[in-house]
Each structure stands twice: as C-alpha cells, then as structure tokens.
Backbone:
C-alpha cells in the first residue's frame, strides 16, 4: 500500500487498509509512508512492515544541488522495493510521486484512481484504475471505493486504529485521577495557520463545559513552532477550565491520550481524524476546508460547526481566515453538550 503525505490522509486510509487485511489474512501487508506517520502505522498489529520513504533526505540533497547523490538514493530505494517482489500495490495517494513508486516497485498489478481522483498523471503508472462516480466524496469513502474496486467486500475493523494497552495505560497514568476530560487540540501544521480557531473561542468552550457539565479539558500541543504557546494561552484564559495535556512524543501516544478522552474539540487536522478513529466523539470546527471531503470517520459520533461566508471551502486559505473568525463559541459548546449527552455510558 502507498499513502504518503499528511498525517490526516494516512489516518483516513486505515479503515480501507484494515479491510485488505481481513480479505487477505495470510498476505504480507506492507505500507509505504513518510516519516511523520511512521509511529502510528507501525503501532497497527495487522501491518507486517512499514517502509519509510526518505523524502526529507532526498529533498535536502536536491536543495543542496547534490543531484547525482539524490538520484543514487532514489535508485537504491526503488531497488529495495523491487527486491521485496510485491504482487499488488494499492496506491491510495495517486499523485505523480506515488505513481512512480508504484511502478518502480515492479509489482505486476498496480491499482490506483482514474481521473479526477488520480492526479498529476498518476493513472499512467497504474494498470488497474478505479473510476469513482461521485464528483466529491470523503477521504474515507474514496479509500473504501478503491478496495471495493479490487473486489474486497470485507468490512473495516471495528476499531481501525489500534492503541496498544501499555501505551493507553501510560497515558492514563499521565492524565491522573478524575473524570475523563475533553481533549482540545487547537494547533495546526505550520503550513495551515488559516485552519486555526481563536484562543478566546477555545477558552470559552473549556470554561462552559467545566461550569455546566463538570467536564474538565486538557489542551494538547503538536510539533508546529508555536503550538505550545497557543495551548498555554488557552489554558491561561480558560480560568481553571483547562490544563495542559501530558506531552505526547509520538502519534501513537497522542492516539492513546485521545482514547482516554470523553470528547474531542478541534479544527480540520490529522489529530482530529486520529480521535475519531479511536472512537472518541468529535466536534469539528471548519473554516476553509471542505466539509464533505474532510468529514470525520462515519463510525464515530460527530458534529461539524461551520459558517458559510461565500468563499469557503477553498484550497489554499488566506491570511484573514474570515471563515474561522466568524465561528462563535456558542454553537461549539452546544455541539459538545449534545455529544456528551448522547454518550453518557461511554465512561
């Protein structure tokens, strides 16, 4: 399987990948991924091998003008793929880079998307191309359609993102005693600051849930440059309604923390999809991103809070991020209360 790229895209491939495992229990299942998502994929017991594409190393070589060294590195990597003698490659990414890697693997059967879901000419490297009828579908639906195209009818695993009991226990101890908290993940990647909601908004939600529902919040911080400062500002303004979450060095740790939470609140990020896949109800705050393509996992209760401003959804976002600025705390609090009331037996 190939799914490189952002954490959220990798996470949303897990249900379809678990269907492949159910359909082929004796097969050796390998996943080609980039370093950011390695820990999470490697934590899935039904994945036999995780192959890491050395994107950063190749990029640095090219940026430094070491073209010959980069070419040798890419050649050696493709040779290692071919030596594994794969029978089938399923290219869930379907862009030029993943198409080249699929073809370079030497697998006799290479499945990917036809246009428009296959992009950048990736369909030219596939010899089995899935044509999807809807002009727009969630990433979960799109990935499911690709395995169904291969004749796989097996359902996804009941919980497609596995959290190791030991990791879960470690994070439970780090959280300490008391009621299961709401997990607030306010940060985004460095390249998508336009997806961020406000300090005041998150702090208001934390205060309201603590005061009216008696549910405390923990605020997590990702690896982006100013995530920690953003989280600390929310805690300071929440007035006792929130505290900083324990540090989570890996995505597997973050998944374990979300698995302890009663509810998740955040914008369109990879961690939001992690939370939905471990079964934690999700309040998704959307601005520039598409609500259909980026819907949370359908197997988990969720609410989406979004205000249409005339220019959203959009692909790139903008510095003004008006679509995020106009989101008020009240509908976010209402969505959170609805989900808390709907799942009182979860804890």
Residues:
């Amino acid at each position: 399987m190939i799914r490189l790229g952002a954490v959220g895209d990798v996470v949303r491939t897990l249900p379809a990948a678990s269907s492949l495992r159910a359909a082929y229990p004796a097969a050796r299942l390998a996943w080609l991924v980039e370093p950011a998502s390695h820990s999470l994929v490697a934590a899935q017991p039904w994945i036999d091998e995780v192959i890491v594409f050395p994107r950063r190393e190749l990029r640095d070589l090219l940026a430094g003008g070491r073209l010959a060294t980069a070419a040798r590195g890419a050649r050696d990597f493709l040779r290692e793929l071919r030596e594994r003698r794969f029978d089938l490659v399923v290219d869930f990414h379907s862009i030029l880079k993943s198409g080249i890697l699929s073809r370079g693997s030497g697998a006799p059967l290479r499945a990917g998307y036809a246009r428009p879901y296959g992009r950048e000419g990736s369909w030219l490297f596939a010899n089995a191309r899935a044509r999807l009828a809807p002009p727009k579908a969630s990433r979960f639906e799109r990935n499911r359609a690709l395995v169904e195209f291969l004749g796989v009818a097996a359902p996804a695993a009941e919980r497609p993102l596995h959290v190791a009991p030991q990791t879960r226990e470690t994070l439970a101890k780090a959280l300490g005693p008391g009621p299961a908290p709401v997990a607030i993940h306010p940060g985004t990647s460095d390249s998508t600051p336009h997806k961020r909601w406000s300090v005041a908004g998150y702090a208001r939600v934390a205060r309201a849930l603590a005061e009216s529902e008696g549910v405390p919040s923990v605020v997590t911080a990702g690896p982006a440059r100013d995530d920690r400062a953003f989280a600390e500002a929310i805690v300071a303004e929440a007035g006792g309604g929130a505290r900083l979450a324990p540090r989570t060095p890996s995505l597997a740790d973050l998944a374990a923390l979300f698995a302890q939470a009663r509810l998740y609140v955040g914008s369109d990020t990879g961690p939001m999809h992690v939370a939905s896949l471990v079964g934690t109800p999700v309040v998704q705050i959307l601005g520039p991103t598409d609500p259909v393509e980026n819907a949370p996992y359908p197997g988990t209760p969720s609410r989406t809070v979004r205000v249409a401003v005339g220019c959203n959804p959009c692909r790139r976002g903008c510095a003004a991020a008006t679509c995020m600025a106009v989101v008020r705390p009240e509908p976010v609090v209402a969505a959170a209360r609805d989900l808390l009331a709907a799942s009182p037996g979860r804890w």
Notes: The domain at 167-346 is CATH 3.40.50.2000 (Rossmann fold). The chain has a mean pLDDT of 91. The chain has two domains: 7-149, 167-346. The two ends are 36 Å apart (CA to CA).
